[in-house]
Amino acid sequence: MNFSKDQSAGYLANHMARIFAQGLTSRIKPLGLTTGTFPALLELWDTDGLSQKQLTERLDIEQATMANTLARMERDGLIVRKKDANDGRAQRVWLTDRARDLRDPAITAAQEENAMRLAGLDEDEKRQFIALIQKVIKTKMSG
Amino acid sequence: MNFSKDQSAGYLANHMARIFAQGLTSRIKPLGLTTGTFPALLELWDTDGLSQKQLTERLDIEQATMANTLARMERDGLIVRKKDANDGRAQRVWLTDRARDLRDPAITAAQEENAMRLAGLDEDEKRQFIALIQKVIKTKMSG
DNA sequence: AGCACTTGCATAGCTCGCTATACAAGTTTT
DNA sequence: AAAACTTGTATAGCGAGCTATGCAAGTGCT
C-alpha cells in the first residue's frame, strides 16, 4: 500500500492552509488582529449586529468556537455583545469604532497575502484554483 | 474596497483544510489516532528511527510543535524516544508495534477521506487541483 | 583547556479548532 | 398552566499549530 503525502489532497490542504495562516498572522499582527477573528470581522463589516447564531451559519464554524472567538474579540475591544431585545437568549454582536477603522488595513493585508501566495500562478490558474477549492468545499456542504 | 471571502484563496484554504481535518479525525478516531500524528507516522512508517530534527524538516512543522506531538505520541504508546548514541542532544524516534500495525488501516482511512472529498472533481480536475496546491506550497518553500 | 558559539530539544503560553455538556430563555403539547 | 421540547450561548477540556525562551550537549577558536 503506497501513499505519498505530497499527493494527498488532505495533507496538501493542511500544509497550504498553515502557510496562508502564518503569512496573514504576521501581516495583521501590527494591527492587533489575529486570523481567527478575520471571518467574523468580514461578516460584521458587511452587516453589523448579527447574532452569534447567524455568524456560525455564515462561516461554517462550530458554535463553541465562535463563542470563544467572540469572547477574545470582546476582550480585545473589537466588539460588544448585547442581548437581543426580542429574544433573551440571543446575543447580537456590534463592532466598536476600533474594529470599523481596521477594515481597510486588514483587507489590504489579506489581499497582499493572497497575491503573494498565488504569485506563481498565471491568471487562468488562479481562477481554476479558486474554482476547484470552492467545488471541494461545496461537496461537503451539499453532502 | 471590496473583498469576498469566497474568492479569497487564504479563506478558502483554511475552510477546506478544516473540512479535511474533521473528516479524517472521525475516520481515524476508532484507531486511537489523531490528525496531528499522521504526518510524523507517515515519515516513520517509511523510515523508522528518524531524529526529531529530521521530522521537522521533512514536514515543514515547527520544532516546538513536533516536540509536543511526539510527547503525545509517546504518551499514547505510538513511539519511543531514545537518545542518539553519537549525539547526546538528539532524540531518535522509534515506532512501537502498535503504530506499525496501524499503518494499513490509517492509510486506508486517509485515502477514503481524500476520495470522498474529491468526488466532485473529474480525473483531470483532480490532477490540476493537486498540482496547483503543490505549486502554491512551493512558492513559499522557494521564497 | 577554556571560552564563545551553535544545535537539538523541551517548556511556557497563546490562538483557534473541535466535541461534549450545561443551562437559561423560548415554544409546543397536553 | 405545567411539562416537555427546542434553541442560543457559555464552559470545560482536548488537539494542533505558533512564537519566545531556556538549557544541555556538541563544535570551534584562541
Automatic annotation (TrEMBL), chains A, B:
The record's listing under PROSITE patterns reads: HTH_MARR_1 (PS01117), HTH_MARR_2 (PS50995)
Q: Name one GO molecular function term.
A: DNA binding
Protein name as it appears in the record: DNA-binding MarR family transcriptional regulator
Occurrences of domain HTH marR-type (ranges): 9-138
Q: Which InterPro entries match?
A: HTH_MarR-typ, Tscrpt_reg_MarR-type_CS, WH-like_DNA-bd_sf, WH_DNA-bd_sf
**UniProt keyword annotations, A-Z:** DNA-binding, Transcription, Transcription regulation
- Tagged with keyword DNA-binding: yes
Q: Which Gene3D superfamilies match?
A: Winged helix-like DNA-binding domain superfamily/Winged helix DNA-binding domain (1.10.10.10)
